[in-house]
Description:
By secondary structure, this protein is mostly beta strands. The chain has a single domain, classed as Neuraminidase, CATH 2.120.10. 0% of the residues lie in helices and 58% in strands. It is built from no helices and 24 strands. The chain has a 4-stranded antiparallel beta sheet, with no helix packed on it. A hairpin with a 4-residue loop joins strand 11 and strand 12 (117-122). It starts with a strand and ends with a strand.
Amino acid sequence: MLALLMGGYFKHPETVLWVGDKMFVSDIGEFGERDGKVYVKQGRRWSVWASYLNDPKGLAFCGGILYVADVDRIWAVKDRSAVFMLVGPKDFKAKFLNGITCGRNRKLYVSDTYGNAIYEVDARRRSVKKVLNVNNPNGLAADGRGNLYVITFTNPGIIFRWDGKTLDTVLISPDINGGDGLIYVREEDVLLASGYRSGKVLKVWPNGRYEVIAKGLKTPAGIGFDGKNVWVPLLELGELKSFRVF
């Protein structure tokens, strides 16, 4: 059952990420105004974790650091007072960085939705290399076994699995029209995926079987998962909703 968590607080919430008992939320703010923020909630208390960002979107926690995909750069946020650009325009020419995840050996993977590319970022060396060409990639999820899952911002939406060599198709479905958020739940060996345009959230098994677990949502973006509940940012409404999955 869906439950409204918060409305009227965010302007354009894009991604939710749970790290332990902390919930991080990226908020684009007004597009192109450099008023983007990352909020953190611990217990009942909300505070600003990072501010004066451009249009922050995907979030990933890797090696004790929060990373933020933001248009043409990636921010590294160690704490509220330590925000620096990991890689940016001088390192690669990205058009619209969107999803980001932490893979093996603390390598980051980030999607460039309008650049039709996925990049691997070595945070230690601050180096970038393109590893995949995919049409409109958005959300990314690593399964810890060497597989990277990709959802596309297309109609129908597509979920791919890449093992470092081969790109396989897991699912093609209009139920993920405008594929956006993607999470891998290791304990259940299942993916959770959102369709920004379809207004749905799906549970997807690696063999391609899927189940619609929520519908009628308005612009569900980068979903988060706390171990039991999915947290859905409704970007255009400025709201978060949550519902039990397992």
